[in-house]
Amino acid sequence: MNPPVVSLRTIAGLLVLAATTVVRAAPAEASPVPAPAPAARPTIFVASDSTAAKNDTGPIQGWGVPFAGFFDPARVNVVNLARAGRSSRTFITEGLWDALLAQVHPGDIVLIQFGHNDAGALNDEPPPPLRARGTIPGVGEETKEIDNVLTKKHEVVHTFGWYIRKMIADVKAHHATPIVLSLTVRNIWHDGHVERGSGHYREWDRELARAASVEFVDLTRIVADEYEAMGENKVKELFPKDHTHTNATGAELNASMVVAGLKGLPKNPFESWLSAKGRAVETDRIGWLNLPEPADPKLPTLMFIGDSTVRNGRGDGAGGQWGWGDYVAPAFRADRLNVVNRAVGGLSSRTFLTQGHWQHALGLLKRGDIVVMQFGHNDDGPLNDTTRARGTIKGIGDESQEIDNLLTHRHETVHSYGWYLRQYIHDCRERGMTPVVCTPIPRKVWKDGHIVRSGSTYAGWARAVAKAEGVAVIDLNELVAEHYDRLGPAAVEPMFGDAHTHTSEAGARENARIVVDGLRALPGDPLAADVAVASPPVPSH
Length: 541
Fold this sequence. Notes:
- This protein is α/β, with parallel strands linked by helices.
- 28% of the residues lie in helices and 13% in strands.
- The chain has helices spanning 64-67, 88-93, 96-101, 160-173, 201-212, 219-230, 232-236, 248-263, 276-279, 349-354, 357-362, 417-430, 458-469, 476-487, 489-492, 505-520; strands spanning 43-47, 77-80, 109-112, 144-147, 154-157, 177-181, 189-190, 193-194, 215-217, 301-306, 338-341, 370-374, 400-404, 411-415, 434-438, 446-447, 450-451, 472-474.
- A hairpin with a 6-residue loop joins β13 (400-404) and β14.
- α4 runs parallel beside α5 and α12 (417-430) runs parallel beside α13 (458-469).
- The radius of gyration is 25 Å and the shape is globular.
């Protein structure tokens, strides 16, 4: 089954605000403004740079131009106020931001996307062109005072994060909704993979959105996944001038990706505002999860795949529930090893594959990496229904069943639990990577003073597949159960965030220590050199 990512084939057809006053940026803690009267229709505003801006000359075009075509003008206004050449700083200091805010009403949405120009000089020196548009790297409160060579005025320059926080706060003060977008993708390739973000702006955007409790659309990931599916040669056709700016076709594609990301947010009003063209765009269902990627692609990667017991929801502890995969990284040196948790809650060994998550994960991996897999909690569901359709055939054989999937409306061949595990193992080996099988962690179900194991079902089947394939296995079902047995019911109770399946932060940390212990016990201890000096203690077994 193809992953639910928009492609050029699904896009139907192809096809300013003037502000010259230079102002000083207002403090980020500006007082809330009175709520303006609601507009007749809500408006989606675009605040960005040339990658979204309208271009009346030359071959390049920004995504904000075709973006309006994905919405019904009778239901929502789309106002593109992106301006070429601007950074988060100069969009504010030139008055463009204040002019946008003057038009914002309660219920409106403001899409905020900056970063391509923020890496420039804080204060240019002659000869021209003079830009003086850079921001201090990071999300802190550092400042630098300058006498701006371009404006001839004294200015206090802040960090990238300060300017984005100000925009978020200002939109909220107008009783509207800010949404942060990561950058569009540049046409820069290495070893068959496209660059996934210029500098650290993508990770800063994610951090800023999370801290402000606003939605974040990881456009970089969505576009990069599509570019890699298209291939380097086809993507090159979208960039007529340089590696940053697309032509009209590329703008159309990027606009559709923005729509896909917005449609994929867990709570949004966009569905009722879409035109027929917008409704035809496939939803990026996992974009809101903000799945991590290797921080340094040149380093080896330890990747986890699995379900919510490995990574729950956004990975932010919603509902007091955490997966163990979020607590392994501190045990290893970040300058030597990427630890990437790509597990997705609610999925089985089957749906992690059929929904395209494995394909996207493979695009981030390389020879020598290690992939740790843990599935089973969701594999015993129905093979076919209208809500999840995630079950697998019980066992490890080659049985299969043909279905017309009631959820995806596609024909599908469903295999056994063991078949899907073998698929992951074989894919890893073909690419020179090391697969490691984990048995599913036990649930908090007690019988005769002991945690109930699943040795005769999914844990046993996972062990059998690992043995038959000759790969390492970390028997979490038994190891964690033994640990719980030693602690006893009273001590184990606060280690769960729900009735019996999902761990609390304390439980996730305990299980992560057991996983680290299992990783250190791999043949030859391949991660020995990557262990942190002050790694967390691992429980004895």
